[in-house]
Specification:
By secondary structure, this protein is α/β, with parallel strands linked by helices. It has helices spanning about 25-35, 55-60, 60-65, 75-85, 105-110, 125-130, 155-165, 185-200, 210-220, 220-225, 240-250, 260-275, 285-295, and strands spanning about 15-20, 40, 45-50, 70-75, 95-100, 115-120, 140-150, 170-180, 205, 235, 255.
């Protein structure tokens, strides 16, 4: 999420955005939305914790690190916790290439003192990373993926594709993320804001970064979802894969948007008339729906 730009007009005024990221990242996201005029509610439904050194060592060998040709960080959290884990185990191999899955991850690595980081020019997913020229001819190369432990098992597309190209892939899991139950006070605050938005004819929008977030959100707001309230809110998701999962869960309004940079601002401005008039994009004409809903930047 970009830093607040105080030079920009607050042209997202009138919108209601619910931020579901873990507490450590939620404030930065909320401040960015607020700087552009949106009303923001914090409702984290996942939590992230560093794994203990002993737990990391149970599943990772320093020998793997010393012979690594490339290290891939799959998220900003992987950068946050993974750099420390690698440095505690002898540091980065001198000749190892460093890859970041997207710009936010790259920025976090830069903050930790790394340089010469390779990153997709556009896109922030496994597909964009795997399109890099440097990851094409990797037969026999040893590649380390730095990631977190997911309660749901997570996606293995990146690892599977690298192995299919002949790479020897190992993983360093350095943090764990899991669902969290929001407090009664958080539920009450969200309920008040959602009711006020609907009274004004505004469709609330939830910023949702993963399938796990959607699942935890449904669990937290089961009563609201059964009443149709949650399922009719706009879900802002970063990838078509998450959008497909959202539709399968019953969400009727889902928009794929970038989660960083100027493109996020531009996409929210496109959505603003629909959200303020509380019109479902599903009822818009087909071409408008296709352009707005499933064409991420």
């Amino acid at each position: 999420m970009p830093n607040p730009d105080l030079t920009k007009a607050p042209d997202l005024n009138g919108l209601t955005i619910v931020v579901t990221r873990p507490w450590r990242q939620a404030d930065a996201s909320a401040n960015w939305f607020r700087s552009l005029g949106a009303q923001v509610v914090l409702f984290p439904v996942l939590e992230i914790e560093a794994l203990s050194e002993a737990t990391i060592d149970e599943n990772f060998s320093v020998t793997q690190l010393r012979s690594t040709n490339a290290i891939i960080f799959v998220s900003a959290n992987a950068a946050e916790y993974g750099v420390a884990a690698i440095e505690a185990r002898g540091g980065f191999p001198q000749e190892a290439a460093i890859f970041a899955i997207g710009n936010a991850t790259r920025q976090r690595l830069l903050e930790h003192g790394l340089s010469k980081i390779q990153c997709p020019a556009s896109g922030n997913d496994s597909e964009a990373l795997l399109a890099l020229l440097e990851l094409q001819n990797i037969n026999g190369k040893q590649i380390l993926i730095v990631r977190g432990v997911s309660e749901g098992g997570g996606r293995t597309f990146l690892q599977d594709t690298l192995q299919a190209r002949g790479a020897i892939v190992s993983t360093l899991e350095c943090y764990v993320r899991g669902a969290v139950t929001a407090s009664a006070d958080a539920h009450d605050r969200l309920d008040v804001v959602l009711q006020a938005a609907r009274a004004l004819g505004v469709m609330p929008a939830f910023s949702v970064l993963s399938v796990e977030t959607l699942e935890s959100l449904l669990d937290n707001l089961a009563g609201l979802s059964r009443a149709g309230g949650l399922l009719e809110c706009m879900m802002l998701v970063p990838h078509p894969r998450v959008a497909v999962a959202a539709h399968k869960m019953g969400f009727t309004n889902v928009s794929v948007v970038p989660m960083s940079g100027e493109t996020l601002h531009a996409e929210l401005l496109k959505l603003k008339p629909l959200l303020l008039e509380n019109k479902s994009p599903a009822n818009a004409d087909k071409n408008s729906h296709a352009n707005l809903q499933i064409n991420p930047k």
